[in-house]
Specification:
alpha+beta; three-stranded antiparallel sheet; single chain; 13 helices; 2 domains; Immunoglobulin-like
């Protein structure tokens, strides 16, 4: 089922800050916090070395310093917040989730980071199929769409991060006391930190520490903790992130399998150097859209009955995409960026592509053009009024793509989620199976060959055209699943 969401624009107050039912934020008040109200994460390494090492290689630690966030934030979000009255609160709201201590301290915008984190720093821990880091590096070089990467490879060893560069860090998360309202979204956390406050909250039973106060927290074992930032309404009232909301509609939620069980998988051991052995406690690497999570997130099945076909004829077949294993829609998160697409083609025995088989358009769906890969210049890095167009998908044209398209007030696709007034999409839902139908016109020059019809499902974190526009590395295209059939082509 394709999704076509058109949401009503809400009235904004406070110069563009969203006023939604049950949530009122007073951003113009004097900040109640200072950066030193939280301990820097490196202070935690003395007792929580394993957790700190996990966090150092995780996306949470790069919430502010990541190359994509830094570039998009300072080139577009900060600029738009200054030139457009409707977006007056944008620069602060981005920090609410990407650098919450800066946001709560009123440091808006913070100074740009002096040491950007390249996403390859976070890629290598999930390349588990390789025996050595050297093999993983070589694999990345071989697969690179913009080589070479070896010169840019950085060591993901634990590092000191301070002030805004801390991103989403230990003391911040473990000092959250509650959620401002029943619905978690738009960074509506309630922190409990500052002079004289040193209580750290988590889900461990009977916690104890010689350094800080401890408290068992039901919030920290709930999916609501994640929804604080993984649900988001933009200043125009559109749900531009809804991962937690998506989860509430799945069988995972009904079975109380929360985000942490997949993204912070439990393991045995000590949560702290001086702690006791526990049958389980959570890892802190917060896996997401990388190799170890993406591979197998869905299954592709190719249904071709023929084992031999005649050159010059044509056959029809189906490809099903199902067994969606995620606890939310796929892809999720920043869905104006994330893409999953199905490429169907004919290959020879050496793996060379001989013929691309495009998906036929659906004349009954006016939005179908958004769900077939195209390189037309209709995507914009921000509002279509503020810059030149980019190639929308930057992929081979004619593939089925499972994505969300964010449309701005001019009806143009935008990568600036804050300008979205409408979302059209066809992302994959958990437990859903999609069936795509194809027709293969067998070329005459294939006569006498054994060929392979292959259906491949791919994932990427952002469009190549957008990465190139921002001047950052293009993200890898990760294989989710594939299926193929060998077919003999008979001469006429």
């Amino acid at each position: 089922m394709k999704r076509n969401i058109s949401l009503i624009v809400l009235v904004t107050v406070g110069g563009g800050v969203l006023a939604a039912p049950g949530l009122v934020r007073a951003q113009k008040q004097q900040p109640k916090h200072a950066l030193d109200h939280w301990e820097d994460p490196y202070h935690c390494v003395g007792c929580h070395q394993e957790r700190f090492t996990d966090w150092s290689a995780a996306q949470m630690s790069c919430g502010f310093t990541g190359d994509f966030f830094q570039t998009q934030y300072f080139q577009y979000a900060v600029v738009d917040s200054q030139r457009d009255p409707k977006m007056a609160g944008l620069a602060a709201d981005c920090l609410g989730c990407h650098s919450p201590s800066a946001y709560l301290s009123g440091l808006v915008p913070p100074p740009p980071s002096r040491a950007l984190d390249n996403y390859w720093d976070q890629a290598w821990p999930w390349l588990g199929s390789y025996q050595t880091l050297g093999q993983a590096r070589q694999a990345l070089d071989n697969a690179a769409v913009n080589p070479p990467y070896r010169e840019r490879w950085r060591n993901s060893r634990p590092v000191t991060k301070q002030d805004a560069d801390r991103g989403v860090f230990c003391d911040f998360c473990h000092s959250i006391k509650s959620i401002e309202n029943r619905q978690p979204f738009n960074h509506n956390y309630v922190p409990d930190t500052g002079p004289g406050r040193n209580t750290k909250r988590a889900d461990l039973e009977f916690p104890w520490s010689p350094y800080h106060e401890t408290q068992v927290s039901e919030l920290h074992e709930s999916a609501g903790l994640c929804g604080i930032c993984h649900n988001e309404k933009n200043p125009l009232g559109v749900w531009v992130k809804a991962t937690h909301i998506e989860w509430t509609e799945t069988r995972y939620a009904k079975r109380d399998l929360v985000c942490q069980w997949c993204h912070m998988p439990p393991r045995e051991g000590k949560p702290a150097k001086m702690g006791r052995e526990r049958p389980w406690n959570h890892a802190h690497w917060f896996g997401g859209g990388f190799t170890g999570f993406v591979e197998g997130a869905a299954k592709v099945t190719l249904a071709v009955d023929e084992t031999a076909v005649r050159a010059g004829s044509s056959i029809s077949f189906e490809v099903s995409v199902g067994d969606i294993a995620t606890g939310h829609w796929f892809p999720t998160g920043a869905t104006e960026e994330r893409d999953v697409w199905l490429h169907v083609a004919v290959f020879d025995a050496d793996g060379n592509e001989l013929q691309h088989i495009p998906v036929p358009p659906d004349p009954n769906d006016p939005n179908d053009r958004y769900f077939i890969t195209s390189n037309i210049m209709e995507a914009f890095p921000s509002h279509s009024s503020y810059g030149g167009a980019l190639a929308r998908d930057a992929l081979p044209e004619g593939d089925r793509i499972y994505q969300d398209i964010f449309l701005d007030s001019a009806g143009k696709a935008t990568f600036g989620q804050w300008y979205a007034v409408q979302i059209v999409g066809n992302r994959l839902k958990p437990d859903e199976t999609r069936v795509e139908r194809y027709t293969w016109p067998i070329r005459a020059d294939m006569a006498g060959q054994d060929v392979y019809v292959r259906a491949s499902l791919w994932y990427r974190r952002m469009a190549d055209s957008h990465a190139e526009h921002l001047g950052i590395d293009r993200r890898l295209h990760l294989l989710v699943s594939e299926d193929e059939k060998r077919i003999h082509v008979i001469s006429n």
